[in-house]
Amino acid sequence: MDMDKLVSLCKRRGFLFQSSEIYGGLNGFWDYGPLGVELKRNIKEAWWQDMVRGHDELVTPPGAPSAYEMTGLDSTIIMHPQVWKCSGHYDLFHDWMQTCRQCKRLVRADHVWNMIKEAPWALSFAETLEVTNWGDKLRFNSLRTLQWAKNKGRKTAPNLAIVRNPEVTLSWLSEDLENNPNLDLDLPTLLQYMATEQKAQTGLQTPCPHCGGDLTEPREFNLMFETHTGAVQTEESKTFLRPETAQGIFVNFKNVLDSTRVKVPFGIAQMGKSFRNEITPRNFTFRSREFEQMEIEFFCHPSESRQWYQYWRDRRWRWYQDLGIPEGRLRLREHDKDELSHYSVGTADIEYGFPFLAENEYGELEGIAHRGDFDLRSHMEGKLVKNAEGCLEVEMVEEEGGKKRPKWKGSGRDLTYRDEATNERYTPHVIEPSAGADRATLAFLCEAYHEDQAPDEKGEMQTRVVMKFHPRIAPVKAAVFPLVKKDGMPEIAQDIYRGLKKKFSAFYDEKGAVGRRYRRQDEAGTPYCITVDGQTLQDKTVTIRDRDTLEQWRVKVDDVVEEISQRVS
Ligand code: GAP
Fold first, then answer.
1. Using only C-alpha atoms, what is the Rg of the chain?
2. Ligand 1: residue whose CA is nearest its atom 14
3. Which residues line ligand 1 (CB under 6 A)?
4. Which one of 56, 152, 221, 330 is at 20 to 30 Å from 562 when CA atoms are compared?
């Protein structure tokens, strides 16, 4: 699937717009248009219904160690700053970034090479040397390289060393090749030579993906957006926009226990906005700076936590498939030990083969993490770190005079749980299925996009763009058309439309040729179109057209609402 076509459809049909577009847009922020808001809302409602409201707490679901309860929460975006100190976000929630000394742009250190591989200047350089595979060994051709630097290079990578100072830059490579005729050159290594003017002082440089310039050494960059509460802006008034919804759940654990009759095992679910000042927001909405999460913190007895981890991995894996993403487009990936967060016992990602990624590459939709007792204990005792034995203990800092104190003090509240049946008191372990509402929406948009051949009004075959959303998440469930604007057809169509509207989103359209009206609904992903025609006036039936099969059948006017309800539920 061509991502550019999807991006253009999203704008043209009102799924997604760039935020503040009339002022040139704001990188990493996106607005959902009239169709997009319905789609995303349906996805969030499907999640809430399936995980929370519709959950049957009386039966043990397949694969679960026991029955369990689910409840919801809606906490604030700005919380006490100590929350982020104890959660570890204040100290550890950072990416490594590099700055280009010439164009001043910031790049995430771990994204640099992926960005270079997509950069037009690097692609044209590779083409000049006839390199198709980035890892292939190549023979260096100085003449072609110089020609490229003087022409395309000057326009597309003006700050690359070979463009700024070709003779000096080339001399380092010539010298190294002279000393070592067997020097292994592949494209990344050659690009580093081309980016290096002073090898003796700097070693080989990595070029800026944007302009070819020099990148600084990687520096830490905290991703939390800062703000201040109150009129006076001091260090004490500094607060943060939450980078995840999860912490709002942990700090309310005791409130939920005390105000409801839930017993461990149980889950608290929350969905809402999160904010991360991503260094390189990219790939449409995939990496945004403002996005929505759908998170569950599931509290269980430590002895059962591994079984619950397994259960939630499988449960969430099936959810995406139930809503129409085929198993073959998804991947369930267990993190390697060195990828795990400092507190995590195990994490698995559910990933989707987004079309903007290379073949066989997948992007994260959701992470399911076994967080142990890290969060509850951190908010109780103070920020925890792993000690030499691998056990969690409060992080201490030394004050003047050698006295030690906790780096960040916890709330001091008792966040343990007492099992009334056994009288056992313990800190529950947590399994966290954490999904992104915007990533899920993007995956459902990518999966829905289809082009096929269908006859137009004149019976000629034309390319049809059709968004094949699962009916549960389709922004509009049914559209109603009078074939012509006379003979009482609009009145009958409007009655049907009003009947449908009482149950779900429906659309009424009487403008233009009926074939064109069908096409517009195909692009919006409307599963069913209902047409009132001449026969309706005689036998009180209408046609229903199926978006995917193009099959049409007749139904009594009085049965339309029931028929569509059954099909979309
Ligand atoms: N509480 C755990 C947590 O926040 P995460 O893996 O950082 O874990 C969970 O985020 C999910 O949130 C991701 O799987 C993704 O779907 C979504 N997400 C994270 N960062 C995002 C971003 N910059 N833009 C869009 N979605 C994002």
1. 29
2. 366
3. 244, 246, 276, 278, 287-288, 291, 293, 295, 364-367, 432, 434-436, 438-439
4. 56
